[in-house]
Design goal:
The complex is a heterodimer of chains A (98) and B (279). In chain A, 30% of the residues lie in helices and 22% in strands. Chain A has 98 residues and is of the alpha+beta class. The radius of gyration of chain A is 25 Å and the shape is elongated. Chain A starts with a strand and ends with a helix. Chain B is mainly alpha-helical and 279 residues long. Mean pLDDT of chain B is 89; it is low at 214-241. The chains are: A alpha+beta (98), B mainly alpha (279). Chains A and B meet through loops of A and helix 2 and helix 6 of B.
Amino acid sequence: MEVYEVFRRAGHKEPFEHCGAVIAPDSDMALLMAKECFLRRREGNHIWVARRSDIHSFEDESLLEIAADKSYRFAEAYRGVVDKREKARRRAQEIASS
Amino acid sequence: MSDSLVPLVLSLADDELVLGHRHSEWTGYAPHIEEDVAFSSIAQDEIGHATALYQLVGELTGDDPDHLALGREPDDYRNATICERPNGDWAFTLARHWLYDHADSVRLESLEGSSNQELAALVHKIRREERYHLIHAEAWVKRVAHGPVEGRTKLIDAMAAAWAEIGGIFEEIDGEEKAVYQGELPTPTAELHRTFQERTIAALDELGLPTEIHSRADEQAEFVASSSGDLIAGRESPNGEQTDPLSGRGGRRGKHSGDFDQLWETMTGQYRAHPGARW
């Protein structure tokens, strides 16, 4: 018997989301178990199972912490760019017409 | 404040900025889209480290960090020449990335114990990201080293080329004796270099990559130290000094290769064209 992680999708445009785990001897049986346990009240229209041992992660999760300033990855860092661009465009027109 | 701290921090900052700039040239061209994002992210990390290090220099000298990064003349930059070499192919980029991040890790381990508290704290922060860079470099080099013969051959050649110049990272820094005496640099560069060599030669051995050529690299003239395949001429400076293509030394004294001029033009062009402009 193995542990299978279960993912289900609520609608065609939704992402698959983890919803739990089942214990089963193989993937076919895991799907049946998952359907019974996690799709019994129309929670979704599609289901995946994956062996827990096939799921990989970092042994050291501190690698995922962001150590330094990464503000440039966020939209707030670029606030005011539209205004600045507009200002630059006006300035270019002024220069062209003078 | 100490006058031996400035050249030390500046050499770290310039290495990170210049290599970060080279790394960023892969944006849009890396072997596949996921790696494009990953490598660009590493480039941004390196430039972020440079920014923080220039800020530290600025606190010591009163200079504007932007000016330090982009407003100096080529001869004022203290980066090791290995950082300024063109990317060439992916193999050279990987070999340099792997060697540089090993070298960086050796010196940062030592600098985390610097007597200068600000530098020690900053290095602690930087090391958290550099640890990941090394994991990234190791993952790639391992796969290419154990992969098909074409990639493996390219990697061996690239490693020999990069190895010939990587020693420049450990070239003596201006005022080093004082920096060591005061504990700002807890370990002399020559000793860091030895640690680096022991560590990388053992790692190359484990990867099944040739190491005997590396240990003889200093005496062997047949290795080209340029990713483009050209022999490095070494730029004549006004006082007739040249960069040494086989050891990669010179950078810490502001002696750079012709490749640096091209990089400097691109990297600083915008800043020089619009003095004082703000983003």
